[in-house]
Amino acid sequence: MKLIYIVDANASDREGMKQYLELSGYEVQAFEELHGVQLAIARQVPDLLLLDVNLPDGDGFSYIKKLKQNYVFPVIFVSGRIAESDRILGFELGADDYICKPFSSKELVLRVHALFRRIDVSVSAFRSGSTWVMGNSIMQLDEVSHLFSIDGKQVPLTAAEWRIMSYLVSNSGILITRSQILEHCFDYSFESYDRIVDTHVKNMRAKMGPLGSQWIETVRGYGYRFAGHSTASHAVVASEDKE
């Protein structure tokens, strides 16, 4: 059973989300303030955090910025701050989704289901780990141990970044449009959210170092392409050459 933490200052919203998620088979703990969830995370890391922005003892945006420095579990903002600038900021800070209030309980549950489904698909894609090369650089990915490294240096990725990387790598060498990334990694298909994809890719490249823009190529006006080559395919070619 997946564990979900909720932080929301509104008692009605907080209890409503808790009730519907529990009815959907999740274990849920709800908190009114950041202090409570901080103590809970120290004891047990959740599978998902539902986080409001305006809270009695702090700002959700500031909190997630610090949280992502030490944890990689997914976060969904659930907030009455519905301006596009707020939504974009939430994604820039590492959120996996942003649900605007008011919303239906069914929508919330469907969004949570979709998030966990995408994560499960990503885990299956890299269950045994994989190694990729580009020139003299080597990239290794292992979703089970949640390790991603380039030339032996570990690179921390958020849950959303893992899904994007998984999708790009599984389509190595193929042009992937922003719309495809939105639909496969976020369940979005709105043009206004294209900037979210660019923001995530920008953050990923920065973490990947000087070769980030070479591993993930920009196809101007269309989208992105992963430029790495699987060592497994190299091994097959080498074997065929020997024969």
UniProtKB/TrEMBL annotation:
- Indicate yes or no for the key word Transcription regulation: yes
Which terms are listed as keywords in the entry? DNA-binding, Phosphoprotein, Transcription, Transcription regulation, Two-component regulatory system
Q: Which residues form the OmpR/PhoB-type domain?
A: 129-228
Q: Tell me which residues form the DNA-binding region.
A: 129-228
Domain Response regulatory residue range list? 3-116
Q: Which residues form the signal peptide?
A: none
One BP annotation, GO: regulation of DNA-templated transcription
Give the 4-aspartylphosphate positions (modified residues). Answer: D52
Q: Which GO terms describe its cellular component?
A: cytosol; protein-DNA complex
Out of the domains of life, which is the source?
Answer: Bacteria
Coiled coil where?
none
Please give one Gene Ontology molecular function term for this protein: transcription cis-regulatory region binding
PANTHER family noted in UniProt: REGULATOR OF RPOS, TWO-COMPONENT RESPONSE REGULATOR ORR33
Name of the protein this chain belongs to: Response regulator with CheY-like receiver domain and winged-helix DNA-binding domain
This chain's source organism reads Sphaerochaeta pleomorpha (strain ATCC BAA-1885 / DSM 22778 / Grapes)
Question: Mind giving the lineage of the organism this protein is from?
Answer: Bacteria, Pseudomonadati, Spirochaetota, Spirochaetia, Spirochaetales
